[in-house]
């Protein structure tokens, strides 16, 4: 079938209709979402205000995406998040093309449908994250690898290099792609031939050219992003081997895939291990792009900890492989249909609770932490304004990264309207930057004449007080988040900011405080 005819056959038209409807619904849902920006989203928005080749804890792609969507549509929450549903639409398109090329048109349709209905994709489409930005780039590179293996055309090597490089700029987890490709080449003679005659070298050079500016940025900034990425999986040699963390990671996949597809994936892996070398070529190819991330992250979970989404790059290969295998039989098609129906119900239920039952959603920690920041910011702004008979504040200092980035975002309109708010600054607990907020806007001695201090960490209050020559706590603030949940803050006024030495005595007092 010619590409033109394939583009207008029933499977392609059905996929196009599905994609348009689901993407439109998800964009509309962004307008209805009552949950404010989470701290990571607010942090990414702050980065997006300045173009750079890297940021303190992440590569630059997510800031670039937010910068693009907000440049066109403004800085409202829905515009900050707009890149997420668009990214998943691109990922679904690549997954459809890969499924069509490996198993056929209708298996490709079911793979794309399965992707769009995954509970994890439902959730990921409602907020902007590095995974949402990474997955379409991985999916396109995966499709290009399959096409390279089957055509050996140099153009596909270039496509792999471009999207491998862009993927690394989205999240360093893209580097799993190199390991997966090596495994595919070890298993499959056609892949070894596809990478031969300079094609693999061209892909690597193109990717390296794209990634190099980020490496230069890291070198100029003490490899901040690389160090943070490594610290996420840091090992505690005194407390290793956690079966509970491993089971939590594996069980978390059921929440991402949905319960039916989760057990179908377990069956698929068991089937592959039983059949071994008799697996069809497309099954081996997809298994190669699924196995390394899951094995590596499972090991991390066992010896330390791992979030369920850390293996997200394996999901495109899994959904294509699973859809292709199940679609081949009548019983498998019934499983696909049932699993998709269950996932749709789960997705709609979550959307309903988030939009219409926010009190129930408060039981979810991440939702609770992202709620009520606009009201919190307004209350703090009211106290930061110059009062009659009082000297104006020279800064507003906060002791918590979450508080810093949320205020920075929710004060944007006040500042643009000319509100004379003092500069927002972050207190340095250890005297040097250990997170993005501390690196971006540390409290400065020259701005410390009269400071409004907002405490989210009450246990740090005596240490904050020790950094001022005069200090008094003036007010307790309680911000209602729901009928029975509030955000509690303390406010103080500090004068003469003069940070105490972060010496051995200071660290000992801090250690004792943390143990209490």
Outline the fold blueprint:
Blueprint: H1 3-7, H2 10-32, H3 39-48, H4 61-73, H5 77-81, H6 83-102, H7 105-117, H8 119-124, H9 130-151, H10 154-170, H11 176-187, H12 189-195, H13 199-220, H14 224-232, H15 243-257, H16 259-275, H17 281-288, H18 291-303, H19 315-327, H20 330-356, H21 358-361, H22 365-369, H23 373-384, E1 395-398, H24 401-410, H25 412-416, E2 424-426, H26 436-440, E3 450-455, H27 461-465, E4 468-480, E5 486-497, H28 504-515
Parallel strand pairs: 1-2, 1-3
Antiparallel strand pairs: 3-5, 4-5
Helix pairs in contact: 2-6, 2-7, 3-4, 3-24, 6-7, 6-9, 6-19, 7-19, 7-20, 9-10, 9-12, 10-13, 11-12, 11-17, 15-16, 15-18, 16-20, 17-19, 19-20
């Amino acid at each position: 079938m010619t590409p033109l005819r394939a583009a207008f056959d029933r499977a392609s038209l059905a996929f196009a209709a599905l994609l348009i409807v689901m993407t439109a619904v998800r964009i509309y849902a962004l307008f209805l979402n009552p949950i404010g920006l989470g701290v990571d989203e607010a942090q990414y928005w702050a980065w997006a205000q300045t173009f750079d080749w890297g940021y303190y804890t992440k590569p630059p792609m997510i800031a670039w995406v937010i910068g693009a969507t907000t440049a066109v549509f403004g800085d409202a929450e829905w515009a900050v998040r707009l890149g997420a549903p668009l990214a998943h639409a691109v990922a679904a398109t690549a997954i459809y093309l890969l499924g069509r090329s490996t198993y056929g048109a209708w298996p490709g349709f079911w793979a794309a449908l399965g992707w769009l209905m995954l509970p994890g994709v439902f959730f990921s489409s409602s907020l902007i994250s590095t995974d949402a930005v990474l997955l379409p780039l991985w999916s396109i590179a995966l499709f290009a690898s399959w096409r390279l293996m089957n055509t050996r055309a140099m153009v596909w090597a270039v496509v792999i290099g471009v999207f491998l490089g862009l993927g690394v700029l989205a999240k360093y987890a893209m580097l799993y792609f190199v390991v997966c490709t090596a495994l595919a080449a070890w298993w499959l003679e056609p892949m070894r031939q596809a990478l031969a005659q300079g094609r693999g070298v061209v892909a690597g050079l193109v990717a390296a050219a794209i990634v190099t500016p980020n490496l230069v940025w890291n070198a100029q900034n003490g490899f901040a992003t690389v160090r943070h990425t490594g610290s996420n999986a840091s090992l505690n040699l005194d407390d290793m081997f956690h079966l509970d963390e491993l089971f939590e990671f594996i069980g978390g996949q059921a929440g991402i895939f949905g319960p039916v597809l989760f057990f179908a994936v377990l069956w698929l892996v068991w089937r592959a291990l039983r059949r071994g070398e008799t697996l069809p070529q497309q099954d081996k190819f997809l298994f190669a792009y699924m196995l390394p991330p899951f094995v590596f992250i499972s090991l991390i979970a066992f010896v330390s900890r791992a979030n369920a989404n850390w293996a997200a790059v394996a999901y495109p290969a899994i959904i294509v492989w699973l859809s292709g295998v199940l679609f081949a039989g009548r019983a498998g098609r019934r499983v696909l249909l049932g699993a998709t129906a269950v996932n749709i119900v789960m997705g709609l239920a979550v959307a309903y609770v988030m939009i219409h039952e926010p009190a129930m959603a408060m039981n979810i920690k991440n939702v609770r932490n992202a709620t009520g920041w606009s009201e919190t910011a307004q209350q703090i702004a009211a106290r930061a304004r110059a009062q009659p008979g009082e000297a104006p504040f020279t800064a507003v200092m906060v002791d918590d990264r979450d508080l810093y980035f949320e205020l920075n975002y929710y004060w944007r309109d006040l500042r643009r309207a000319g509100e004379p708010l003092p500069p927002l600054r972050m207190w340095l607990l250890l005297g040097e930057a250990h997170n993005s907020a501390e690196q971006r806007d540390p409290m400065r001695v020259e701005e410390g004449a009269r400071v409004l201090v907002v405490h989210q960490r009450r246990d740090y209050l005596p240490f904050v007080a020790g950094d001022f020559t005069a200090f008094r706590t003036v007010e307790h603030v309680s911000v209602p988040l729901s009928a029975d949940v509030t955000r509690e803050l303390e406010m103080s006024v500090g004068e003469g900011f003069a940070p105490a030495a972060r010496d051995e005595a200071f660290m000992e007092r801090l250690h004792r405080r943390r143990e209490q």
